[in-house]
Amino acid sequence: MSDRKVFTDSVAELPTQPGLTKHGLLVAPAKRDARNETMELLFSLEMPDKDDLEKRVAEGQVLSAEQLNQRYSATKADVDALKSWLNEQGFDVIGESPDGTGIYAKATVGQIEQSLDVKMVKVTKKGVTYTAAQSAPSLPMSVGAPVHAIIGLQPFRHAQKHLAHKISHNNRATLDRHGLPSPNVANSPPYLVSEILRAYGADALGVTGAGQTIAILIDTFPNDHDIIEFWKANEIAVDLTRIGKIKVGAGHLPAPEGEETLDVSWTSGIARGAKIKIYATGSLQFVALDKALDRIIADASSDPSMRQLSISLGLGETFMGGPNGEVATQHQKFLRLAAMGVNVFVSSGDAGSNPGIDGQTADGPLQAEYAASDTAVVAVGGTSLKLAPAHGAVAQEDGWAGSGGGDSVFFSRPVWQTGKGVPTGPKRSVPDVSAAADPNEGAFLVLHGQPTGIGGTSWAAPIWAGLCALINEARHKAGLPSLPYLNPLIYPLNGTACFRDISHGTNGEFTATPGYDRVTGLGAPDVKELVTALTQAPAHTSIAA
Fold first, then answer.
1. CA distance 282 to 218
2. d(CA 384, CA 307)
3. Which of 183, 211, 344, 348 has its CA 20 to 30 A from that of 483?
4. According to DSSP H, which parts of 65-201 are helical?
């Protein structure tokens, strides 16, 4: 194998003998007819000078798409050599990342086994059977040297939605003939948009997110009727032209389940003047998500208004394979977005400090979830928010038991993650910030035509994406460009009026304490104070290549 490069981190370990694994996976030999199945893979190439780009992003620098392409793209010779080899092997090359660091190709299972020197088996997870690699793939060194991962060989490993269960409330349980909630007890859950804006000091700022676009990465589109009814109930102007729908890939889109509806409803509600673009992948397979991130990078390169992205997905790091597999592949994409000034808000998880493989039960090892643990995103944890009935002021806000948090096993402590409460140690800690998430004090939503209450850090992440659009509009009004990567700017604000410090509550292993903590991060925002702090020049540097 000395003439081949083996990609150990591109697969998770599976037993060599048939049987049931500790994570409930049933492994069995693949039948002969499985060799005719078709799989789509991503061959991910290493970004040149990545460490240099990491440093620039941490310093708050923003680069243009042209500057990024000139210095941080794969070489044409490496890309062409890989594509030529894939074609020779019978693969169908179907796409390429904007920066050349990803080649998408299809082939039969039989061809994949032969060309990548990999053994394929059948893996059953929760009643669904997948064809998956049992051993690590490899490539000839002549084309594999610049490649760092081959993605898509174990489709049973995929992201999970962060959507806490809906909770029944008597309040706002129906809609009256005008489309307004009934009964409608003010400042009582499930909360309306105006109540959350007031709670976080974002209700009287003179900004609506006008001129901004918020991207959403999810597997499907919501029903238009549900969005319209949500807007009516929140007394937001009905305008479906605000919502753009981009179907990424050729697959069938699943029916709405709630996550997509929550993301679109609350981003468009918090930033009622912003446009929303939904990138629907059709599945939560990593190859599909990578393809959508490539499309978002391409669109953001030509659309300077798209400077915030909301993602309410994740998977415990111990289920992700090695650090040079999918994690490294997505990190390059998030790093490129951060370098462009696109802030990516990722929910930290809904199963506390020990998320299981399904992302909903707290039966896994102590771990953070990816992609929240990535050092180029803003990880959003969750709180339990209670409002004073009379005037809507915050009566109490504690760390939510489901809020994902912990220390990454993949990412080292970034230079900007310092300050009171930040734990000692060499690893990246999550979350960075927090917002309302507890479904028992949940969000108002209209789903399948019915009002309901819902929660999870998948509520908190779109709240923050909407707030980012408000801050960016305020910066533009102040004559400043859009924000750079947010984390290096907000950690110095630890302990200031910009954040309501959350000092009670636990997610299992970790407890909310004064300053930073691994339940709520820096705390919940005071957007008025954040706008004041983040509209002071300079907080942005654009440099030449």
1. 8
2. 28
3. 348
4. 65-71, 76-88, 109-116, 141-144, 193-199
Residues shown for the chain: 545
Instruction: Retrieve residue 61's tokens.
Output: 């620098």
The position carrying tokens 């915050």 is 394
For 404-432, how does the pLDDT look when each residue is reduced to its tens digit (9 = 90+)? 999 999 999 999 999 999 999 999 999 99
Nearest alpha-carbon partner for 359 in 127, 23, 15, 20: 23
How far is CA 81 from its chain centroid? 32
- Residue 137 is given by DSSP the state -
Measured in degrees and rounded to the nearest 5, phi and psi for residue 483 equal -60, 145
Nearest to 260 by CA among 272, 270, 252, 268: 268
Q: Are strands 4-6 and 138-140 parallel, antiparallel or unpaired?
A: antiparallel
236: three-class secondary structure by DSSP: coil
Tens digits of per-residue pLDDT, 132-191? Answer: 999 999 999 999 999 999 999 999 999 999 876 667 778 999 999 999 999 999 999 999
Up-side HSE of residue 411: CA atoms within 13 Å toward CB? 30
205-208, long-range: CB within 8 Å, 24+ apart, which pairs? 205/470, 205/474, 205/527, 205/528, 205/531, 207/273, 207/470, 207/473, 207/474, 207/477, 207/531, 208/271, 208/272, 208/273, 208/274, 208/470, 208/473
- Mean pLDDT calculated for residue range 11-37: 82
| Backbone phi and psi for residue 267, each to the nearest 5 degrees, phi listed first | -65, -45
The Cα–Cα gap between 374 and 323 comes to 11
